Amino acid sequence: IIRALYTNTIAGETLEGGSTITQQLVKNLFLSSKRIMSRKVEEAILASEMEHYYSKEEILTMYLNTVYYGHNYYGIYEAAHGYFGTSPSRLTLGQSAMLAALPNAPSYLDPYTNYEGAKARQKLVLEQMVDQGMITQAEADYAYEQDLELVEE
């Protein structure tokens, strides 16, 4: 957040967001999407309050159940069914990585209209999972090589 504040101040415009998952949830649930500094302060205060009352797991669950994934899909359940015709618990690693990438830029990363861009972002998510020790490189490679098997529009 501090880096984003510094970068935005130097540039004289909003270039970076720097929001945590909790701050994004607060913005999605309670605040406007206007990118102004006073909103960022309010967002940080409300996020701090939310973290006082909810566990990280509860906050992540709320975020996943409310975030926009494109194609008018809000929440992981709608996105899993809409894109892949399955429930979140039955998603493959590759499909999960794709859905994890979408909230960042759901229109640009739309796998129906920008499959290559969506696959590139999926690869980035998989690489981050390897870096964090969540999966092996072999698992990431296998997941990336698999076709996404999108539901036809």
Characterization of this structure:
One of its GO terms (cellular component) is outer membrane-bounded periplasmic space. It is found in: Cell membrane. There is one protein chain. The protein is an all-alpha fold and 153 residues long. It has helices spanning 2-11, 21-30, 37-53, 56-66, 76-84, 93-101, 115-131, 137-145. It has 2 domains: 2-54, no CATH class; 67-145, Orthogonal Bundle (Penicillin binding protein transpeptidase fold). It contains 8 helices and no strands. It is globular, with a radius of gyration of 17 Å. The longest helix is centred in the first third of the chain and has 17 residues, at 37-53.
Compose a concise summary of this entry.
The protein is mainly alpha-helical and 153 residues long.
Strand content: under 5%
The tally of strands reads: 0
| Annotated CATH homologous superfamily of the largest domain | Biosynthetic peptidoglycan transglycosylase-like
Dominant shape: globular
- Contiguous helical run count: 8
CATH class of the largest domain: Mainly Alpha
Biggest β-sheet description: none
Structural class: mainly alpha
Radius of gyration, in Å, reads: 17 Å
Helix content: 55-70%
Low-confidence stretches: 1-16
Overall pLDDT: 86
CATH architecture of the largest domain: Orthogonal Bundle
The CATH topology of the largest domain is given as: Penicillin binding protein transpeptidase fold
Number of domains: 2
Q: What is the CA–CA distance across the termini?
A: 38 Å
Write the element-wise H/E pattern from the N-terminal end onward.
HHHHHHHH
